[in-house]
Amino acid sequence: MWWWLATPITLARAPIDPNAKLLCVSYAPFRDAQTPLLRTTHIAPEQIAEDLAQLAKISDCVRTYSIENGLDQVPAQAAKVGLKVIQGIWLGSDRLKNLAQISTAVSLAKQYPGVITSLVVGNEVLLRGEMTTNDLAAVIRSVKAQVTVPVTYADVWEFWLRNREIYDVVDFVTIHILPYWEDFPIRAKFAASHVDSIRRRMAVAFPGKEILIGETGWPSQGRMREGALPSRTNQARVVSEILLLAKQENFRVNLIEAYDQPWKRQLEGTVGGYWGLLDAVHRALKYPPGEAISNFPLWKWQMGSGMALCVLVFGAAAATLRRRPWTPRLTSWVAVAIGAATGGVLLGIAADKVVYESYGFGGWLQWGALLAAAIASPLLCAHALMSGRALPTFLELLGPREGRSQSLLTWLLGTALIVTTLIGAETALGFVFDPRYKDFPYAALTMAVVPFATLVLNRPQQGVRPIAEATFAGLLALAAIYTGLNEGRDNWQSLWTCAIYLVFAVTLWRARAAQIPK
Q: Are residues 218 and 265 in contact, defined by beta-carbon separation less than 8 angstroms?
């Protein structure tokens, strides 16, 4: 399985060609916990200089979006390394702030005429609904009257078609085409042709002026949207194919973006932080020229950890038999094998997802707890299968004192069950009420739930159905049905997660608790 998962691809054209620099790439300098969402954030010039010196080796130009948080230093640092700058002016609903942005950007354009090649007056401000078309047009005219460089506005392509008045006041049209974020998401293999199709459509709609693709690219991590899958190989393929098209069709394109931006995850979930050509931590190219590209570059370690878990699961079963010298049913060993194989295959994926999808203390706590439960589940269930014990109910841990279990291993198994239930329910509700930026926890959830489900072999024939388990079972089942329909049949992450929700719902529904005498 891991040999298949980690099979690398080699592209005919590398995303970063050592013999040809990129035309332009979006640049934001924020690292680690730095975020523009805090007004007090100010990036030191040394940090910007370090980034631009690196980017000058792979690109001729950088595009910025604002002059705040120290970004007004970019033109001066770019001049030192020979980079051109598409200078952004961030506009919003605050007019005084807009005027300050405009004043600074105009001054920079006059101070660095050989560096700043154009001004982007506003970025998706119409999409966000923070300005009217007339107000934006007036601001663009005002800026054009003060500078000699070309002036444009940037927005997703649909909003250019809805606000054609802006076309009359700009020097060229800057459109954003992000196949992953389309209302009807585009698969990675069709992304480049979609970008070219939209570009041609816009050229017909707005003749006589250049069409600059101001943003396009693909994320390397995050949740699926219908058939659009973020991954390292998909990002490399899409970027490579778009750049090849740009060269063949002779159009300008700016890639989003230079570096992964962790702070965007606060707004857009995991996927928002992984659009960069270089990673945020090591500032290294994700796809060095000449190297094969794999979705799991550390697959040998991930495979090895899975094998180790398999050995431990069978070891737990064997150790239990040594203390309980009886001959278990063949089905019990098959159940142990299913739990071991499931955990062994998915442990590397689950750990990989924890690293990439955990954001902030709450994120690390949630996904770390689920991974811990996923690792403990096959081990503890192997012991329970060999002991002839059923899956404990919540009452055995949290019910009346006289009905609680005194077994440490039962307590540990019950704790893993409760953790999995709570996180499973929380994620299921998230996919129902606020799904756009939620990640699908299919790997860790499967690792935990499958061993629980195998304990149905030891299910007691007598007892009552606990209310808590029945309630969670109903919640998971309803959420699974809704999520599966809402996300669509092309989203295998969603279908997998929903299938596990249903398996978990059945497992909880079949739970039985002993009647406590009054």
A: no
Are the CB atoms for 277 and 240 separated by under 8 Å?
no
DSSP label at residue 513: B
Report how far residue 486's alpha carbon sits from residue 68's, in angstroms, rounded to the nearest whole number: 39
59 CA to centre of own chain: 26
Instruction: Establish how many alpha carbons lie within 13 A of residue 148's alpha carbon, considering only the half-sphere containing its beta carbon.
Output: 6
CA torsion 162-165-170-172 (nearest 10°) is: 40
pLDDT, tens only, 242-258: 999 999 999 999 999 99
CA distances 450 to 40, 57, 228, 337, 346, Å, are: 48, 49, 27, 11, 12
pLDDT value of residue 518? 46
Q: Which helix (H) or strand (E) holds 102?
A: helix 95-111
H or E, element range at 233: helix 232-249
**pLDDT tens digit string along 245-291?**
999 999 999 999 999 999 999 999 999 999 999 999 899 999 888 88
Sign of the torsion angle spanned by Cα atoms 479, 485, 486, 489: positive
User: Residue 192: which of 17, 15, 21 has the closest Cα?
Assistant: 15
* Angle formed by the axes of helices 330-357 and 442-454, nearest 10°: 160
Quickly tell me which residue has 């054609």 as its tokens: 164
Give the bridge partners for 120, in sequence order. Answer: 88, 152
Separation CA 323–CA 307 (nearest Å)? 25
Cα–Cα dist 100/117, whole Å: 21
Peptide bond into 396 cis (omega under 30): no
Handedness of CA 427, 432, 436, 442 (dihedral sign): positive
pLDDT-derived band of residue 460, with 50, 70 and 90 as boundaries?
confident
What are the backbone dihedrals phi and psi of residue 479, each rounded to the nearest 5 degrees, phi first? -65, -40
- Please return the burial class of 412, using the count of CB atoms within 10 Å of its CB with bins 0-12, 13-18 and 19+: middle
- Domains of the chain, each with CATH number or no CATH: 19-273 (3.20.20.80), 299-509 (no CATH)
In this prediction, residues 106-127 reach a mean pLDDT of: 96
Phi, psi (5° rounding) for residue 26? -65, 140
Residue type, 296: F
If DSSP states are collapsed to H, E and C, what string results for 274-316? CCCCECCCCCCECCCCCCCECCCCCHHHHHHHHHHHHHHHHHH
CA pair distance 299, 7, nearest whole angstrom: 10
Q: How far apart are CA 371 and CA 392, in angstroms?
A: 20
Choose among 22, 4, 509, 30: nearest CA to 266: 30
Q: What is this structure's pTM?
A: 0.91
Sign of CA dihedral 81, 85, 88, 89: positive
